[in-house]
Amino acid sequence: IRCWSNIPFITVPLSRAHGKSFAHRSELKHAKRIVVKLGSAVVTRGDECGLALGRLASIVEQVSMLQNQGREMMIVTSGAVAFGKQRLRHEILLSQSVRQALHSGQSQLKDMAIPVLEARACAAAGQSGLMALYEAMFTQYSICAAQILVTNLDFHDEQKRRNLNGTLHELLRMNIVPIINTNDAVVPPPEPNSDLQGVNVISVKDNDSLAARLAVEMKTDLLIVLSDVEGLFDSPPGSDDAKLIDIFYPGDQQSVTFGTKSRVGMGGMEAKVKAALWALQGGTSVVIANGTHPKISGHVITDIVEGKKVGTFFSEVKPAGPTVEQQAEMARAGGRTLAALQPEQRAEIIYRLADLLTDQREEILLANKKDLEEAENKGRLALPLLKRLSLSTSKLNSLAIGLRQIAASSRDSVGRVIRRTRIAKDLDLEQVTVPIGVLLVIFESRPDCLPQVSALAIASGNGLLLKGGKEAAHSNQILHHLTQEALSIHGVRDTVQLVNTREEVEDLCRLDKLIDLIIPRGSSQLVRNIQKAAKGIPVMGHSEGICHVYVDTDASVEKVTRIIRDSKCEYPAACNALETLLIHRDLLRSPLFDQIIDMLRVEQVKIHAGPKFASYLTFGPSEVKSLRTEYGDLECCIEVVDSVQEAVEHIHKYGSSHTDVIITENEKTAEFFLQHVDSACVFWNASTRFSDGYRFGLGAEVGISTSRIHARGPVGIEGLLTTKWLLRGDNHVVSDFSEHGSMKYLHESLPLPQRNVN
């Protein structure tokens, strides 16, 4: 028998009917039976007198949602003392003949002395009200709740323990939510404590132990302990360098320094950790999280059950490799070392990676073959995605060529002076290029993306976290291994990290203290999801690629069909493929228009009619549902416009600011289009497919950005750099430049150093 907080724990065998605890957060969604422990700080208001009704209502809503999903929910709650204190204070004020003061305002009550209230009396007065509140809230979700009060003595009697166990099982069988609390009205007198102002508080820390005991005894899958801190930190929260521990393992106690307890309650984090470890030993998974934070408390319980990265997860299984947080820190440290290398050394790394792609071609293609076979067997990838997943000798050769271009163009990227100003005599200012920091690149079904992005990160001196799709796991693994092999020639192997843990993309997007920029490479849905999930981290990319081609009245017959065919049919799944074809009205029923339609039919392109185009048709394609559609396949929309001005207006209204094209022989019309279309890429008599980093001569790209801040269009090395200011002086102080000072500002522009163009 082990005793914590006056409650004896009878150790149970680990061979439980419900098995061992979950090893990973992602498995928590399978939890069937769940205990939610509500700490005093969660249930009570900030003034420690009365309940936090808003938080309580949110918790009840989440518990009800999970209960209605077929789970078995139990609540271990505090709050009776605080609720009772509120009621008794009110009664005392009334009994002191201050009814008139109550009606006239609260100002007269401030000076009235409130006697110290005995905690057991507060509990007795508050228990019925607390339960009535729970019942009223659960009734809103058609759920019945039942109250169970226990004392320490109930756990000393084997028969009482069995009765309690049987009662709880019967309630769960009837789909009733048990609400358990210590019977603070009859417990032995506590030692004097000023924990709650004006109340000698019952040792409510027993609720941590009570929750753990019930969780194990009821063979619960998951215990959620809600407090007023985000979870377990490696040092007291609020102290310098305190870091939230994502996963806590038995035996890690020596790495943690416990601080003071919460504003109410007796448990403190140390008691919670002890109770959590005991429950973990008994086969119950545990998460300690914040139930008071207004931004997360409304979904903290459901987020935990969904496996999201909330609070501290207790696990008995240590991962084989580093955590994603550790990987991000390694990438940052490696990136700083990489940025300090000579440009020639960074170029050597990229040249080495290019050589490895061709030298290790057979191993790469063998790994890729495994990915393709698994994807085909599972049938989970559409044909366009299978094409993206596939690698070939020609693809690897093209990759190697692109990497050598990056290496050649990277020699003057980091540390380049872009502005020099003489502020005053012997006071010179420089603006120089520097890496952004740590990049997180998330990509789907594109293993060739890994060496491309890695090379750009190396050239720009950035640390890199890569999160690839599981469908390309074998390909990504060998390509990452080769990347680290290349990095090793200058001792910066850890600069590029491949995230292989079960981290959800949404959890990675919350690492705002570790990641400086997120770059998604994949479907428009992926980009939108990441833009929505990113918490305080900039996202570079585009959510849609709605590209237009406008055929003007002065268009060349020879050029029109070639450019349209290439824009739509060369790779219809690409983000820079044609989606809407704009035709000048005067070209309708012309031979050129017939040639366009015939070519699209031959290429088996499905045509959708825009509203104006549909109005000219007696029969034909049905009217399109939306002019803002990215088809990503052999489909496109045709719409009619009256002028180049109307074409520009249409693009601004329905486009995605990606890539737009005009086909015309009229230079004046073309220049109008080029100057007025507000997109990242605007072309004249050229295919939309030229919107690509490799084709632009950037060597490769990390993506195409439609943002108006920082990089825009295909993003190469330049888009992965920012700047810093260097000021070199000689005992200069601002006061010397005051009205009566001895120095004057010059602000003279100085010539830039000669760039290395070799």
Q: Can you give a write-up of this model?
A:
By secondary structure, the chain is an alpha/beta fold. The chain has 3 domains: about 25-95 and about 115-185 and about 200-315, Acetylglutamate kinase-like (Carbamate kinase); about 325-420 and about 430-535, Aldehyde Dehydrogenase, Chain A, domain 1 (3-Layer(aba) Sandwich); about 550-700, Aldehyde Dehydrogenase, Chain A, domain 2 (3-Layer(aba) Sandwich). Helices cover about 35% and strands about 20% of the residues. It has 23 helices and 28 strands. Strands 6-7-4-3-9-11-12-10 form an 8-stranded mixed sheet, with helices on both faces. α19 links the parallel β19 and β20 (about 580-585). The radius of gyration is 33 Å and the shape is globular. Residues about 1-15, about 190-205 and about 260-265 have low confidence and may be disordered.
Please describe the structure with a list of short key phrases separated by commas or semicolons.
758 residues, alpha/beta, Carbamate kinase, Aldehyde Dehydrogenase, Chain A, domain 1, 8-stranded mixed beta sheet, 28 strands, 18% strand, disordered N terminus, EC 2.7.2.11, glutamate-5-semialdehyde dehydrogenase activity, transferase, Aldehyde_DH_dom, Delta-1-pyrroline-5-carboxylate synthase
